[in-house]
Each structure stands twice: as C-alpha cells, then as structure tokens.
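stage 2 :: seqdesign
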C-alpha cells in the first residue's frame, strides 16, 4: 500500500484520537537527520494531547530554550501531519529519573580526560599573540598596562574585564596573559562559545559533575567573547556558579567582550554586577599614529618570517592607515592585500595603485549599529547615554530617545522588539510610537528635520 495513503488514514480517521508518539519520533528522525534527532529530539516526550495543542516534556530548561529557538516551527509542521487541528506546542520541564542518572556510570577519570583533550584541541594559546608584539598606543595603553599588572599580582584586579569593538586586540591581550602565567599556574583559556559547547555536551552525557570540577579547578580562568552567553539562561546559570566558585578560591578571572558589562543584552543582572565589580578597561579604535606603528610592525614581521623585502613608502603607509576606519584586523587584511599585489606585479606601489586596489574596500557602505546611534545621539544633544536610556520622561531626554529609536529603525536591520530591548528593555510599541512621532515632527518642524540630517551625517562620517 502506498505510504502516503497509510499516513493520511492515520491522521484523518475519526476512530484514531490519540497520537502515536513513536511514529512522530520516526518522522522527526527522517526530517531533522540522525545528529539533531539523537542530540535533542529523542529526549522529547508527549505529556498531554488536546484538540489544538500538545504539551511536550523536556529534561531541562536549556533543552527547552534550544529546541524552541531552533526547531519549534519544523516540529509543529511535522506533528500537524499526524493531526491537522494542532496549532501550537507547549513545553514542560520534567526532572530526569534519578535512577537513570545513576545507571550512567562511566570511569570519571576518562571523562575528565575527554574534556581536557577536547579543550586543548580547540583552545591552545597562540605563542605569536604575546606582550612583545602587541603594539601600544593611546587607544589601548590602559588595557595593556593592567593586563601586565595582572600577571605580576594575581587577584589584585579581579575580574579584569577587557571590552572593545571587533578586531582591536582583546583576544591578543587575553592570550598574552595566558602565555605569561601558564608556567606557574593552571591556566584555562576558552571562548564563551566553546564553554557552551562543553556545557551542552556534558548535559547530553549526564556528566555535569566532571564539567563543573574541570572548569573550577583553574587558578587563572580566561574567557573570550562573554557576550555570547546572551539569552542562554541555563548557560548563564552555570557560568554564574563557576565564576563565584573561582572567585571564592582566589583564582584570577579575565574576560573580554565587545561591550561594557552593563550593556550586555539579555544577561542576568547578577552576572553583569559581578563582571562590573572588578576592573573594566576599554580598547578604543586605533588613532592614525597607532595604525602607522601597527603597519610598520607587521611589515617587519613579514620580512623576518618570509625573508623578503617589502617596499612601501611612507605616503602609501599613511594612506592605508588614514583610510582604514574600523579595526586592526581590517587594517592588517588591507596591508596583506597591498603587499600581495606588489609581490605579484613585482614593483613598488604608489598611492594611485593603492586607490585602485582598495577602492572596493574603502567605498563600501558603512555599518551602522544601534550602539553607535545611541552614542552619537547622546553626544549630539549633550546628554549622558545613561540618562537617555533611563525611564525618565522629561522632554530633554524623551525627544533624543525617540530620535535614536527612529534612526535605529531607519538605519539598521534590527526588528522593533530588538530595538526596544536595546533601549533598556522597552516594548516594541514604544519604538513604533517613537517612529511615528519623529516622522510627524520631521514633516512639521524644520529644526527637527535639520537635527535628523545632521545626526545621519555624523553616523555616516564615523
């Protein structure tokens, strides 16, 4: 009999009122593939069935959040094949059977070794990212200074929190600290993303005890890109307890992020408070002088490593440094592109050559972020960012706040709820009201239109 006909009979027959969960699980396995099914969907159980919705059981809140954020729409699509009247799914967290937890007993030493080996494979300290080849300038001298002090006096500045934009040298500094301290300390250097990977793996293997023990025994705990834990409640819970345990035993904690602690979105307040309770240091975008120093340092390294002569005159170096507007990483990429062009054509390049080589890079559209809009608007109206994001409704604060929301909607790809969250967790309806208000005022008030245009210009210039 044709398979599709048999399926149709199962879910349209009036006599068949109860879903066959084992059949639905088989459909999950086919639709999602073995890896996703074995890791996540196999653990879902059917708790209650109603005419228009299901209540499904999952073992932990983390499982629920992960499944809802990635697979919910497709899960609903699959179960509707078996019961057309279903239009939603609810999840209930059920405690895993303690007896089952006790059955899974594997040699604890081998589990710890597995975690350790896996981390070493992905998180080796890079010997090239040390303090000696970190180029110092006005934008990073404070961060560099305190990174070195941490190595001299562990736990004096705890935690050390290094923040700054992408590609400005945060990971370089964290790596340098790890290199400096690794001989006499148990150093753990890991990205927040990798920390989450091991956390999920330990949950699936029912091995959280060894996970906790492994990460909490370090005397120096360095974690990169902490903003990655945003919105991941179970991961934040585990990080919070790991953080407290390490602090209690006097371990040095070093953290990096692309923003300051209090600006971390969808991160628990208690975590933000602890991150801000140590020493927070910024790395700003490099100025022209520092970019020139970085270019010259990189040229020296390339000449030493590859035993070749690189002929870039000061005019070309100054042009590259001046035109590169974003990060050190972009600056190095541009330099490599120029060097490669000169090597292929076997000649010394001039500024006109560089302009032709890099025209697609320097003429690209600038990326505008909500953070950037908030800062530019606050500076334009000479108010603090904290006041602009506050709950105060006085006109001198409310109008700039509405302008910032208006520009965030017009100049970024963020959704209304996302914009609302970036403005101290306001509702999306507040953003809609702000956009309508500023649109109306721009049509009626020349001064408002002038302000909007000037702020736009400032955003595009930076």
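stage 2 :: out
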């Amino acid at each position: 009999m044709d398979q599709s006909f048999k399926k149709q009979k199962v879910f349209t027959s009036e006599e068949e009122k109860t879903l066959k969960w084992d059949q639905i699980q088989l459909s999950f396995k086919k639709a999602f593939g073995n890896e996703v099914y074995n890791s996540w969907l196999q653990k879902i159980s059917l708790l209650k069935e109603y005419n228009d919705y299901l209540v499904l059981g999952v073992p932990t809140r983390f499982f629920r959040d992960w499944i809802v954020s990635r697979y919910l729409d497709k899960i609903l699509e699959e179960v509707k094949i078996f019961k057309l009247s279903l239009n939603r799914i609810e999840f209930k967290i059920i405690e895993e059977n303690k007896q089952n937890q006790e059955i899974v007993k594997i040699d604890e030493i081998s589990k710890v070794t597995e975690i350790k080996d896996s981390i070493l494979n992905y998180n080796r300290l890079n010997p090239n990212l040390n303090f000696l080849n970190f180029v110092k300038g006005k934008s990073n001298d404070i961060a560099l200074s305190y990174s070195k002090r941490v190595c001299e006096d562990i736990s004096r500045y705890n935690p050390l929190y290094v923040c700054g934009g992408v590609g400005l040298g945060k990971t370089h500094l964290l790596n340098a600290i790890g290199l400096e301290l690794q001989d006499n300390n148990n150093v753990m250097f890991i990205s927040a993303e990798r920390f989450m990977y091991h956390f999920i793996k330990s949950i699936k293997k029912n091995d959280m005890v060894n996970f906790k023990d492994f990460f909490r025994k370090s005397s120096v705990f360095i974690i990169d890109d902490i903003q990655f834990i945003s919105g991941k409640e179970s991961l934040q819970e585990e990080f919070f307890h790991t953080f407290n345990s390490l602090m209690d035993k006097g371990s040095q904690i070093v953290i990096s992020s692309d923003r300051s602690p209090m600006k971390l979105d969808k991160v628990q307040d208690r975590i933000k408070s602890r991150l801000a309770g140590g020493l927070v240091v910024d790395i700003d975008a490099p100025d022209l002088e520092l970019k020139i120093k970085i270019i010259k340092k990189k040229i020296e390294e390339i000449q030493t490593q590859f035993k070749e002569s690189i002929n870039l005159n000061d005019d070309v170096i100054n042009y590259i440094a001046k035109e590169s507007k974003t990060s050190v990483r972009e600056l190095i990429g541009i330099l490599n592109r120029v060097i490669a062009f000169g090597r292929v054509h076997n000649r010394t390049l001039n500024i006109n050559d560089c302009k032709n080589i890099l025209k697609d890079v320097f003429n690209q559209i600038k990326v505008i972020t909500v953070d950037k809009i908030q800062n530019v608007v606050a500076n334009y109206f000479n108010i603090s960012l904290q006041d602009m994001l506050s709950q105060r409704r006085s006109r001198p604060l409310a109008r700039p706040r509405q302008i910032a929301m208006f520009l965030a909607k017009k100049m970024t790809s963020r959704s209304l709820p996302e914009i609302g969250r970036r403005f101290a967790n306001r509702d999306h309806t507040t953003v809609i009201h702000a956009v309508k208000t500023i649109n109306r005022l721009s049509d009626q008030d020349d001064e408002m239109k002038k302000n909007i245009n000037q702020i736009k210009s400032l955003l595009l210039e930076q």
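stage 3 :: structure notes
- Confidence is low (pLDDT under 50) at residues 1-17, 96-115, 117-122.
- DSSP finds 23 helices and eight strands in the chain.
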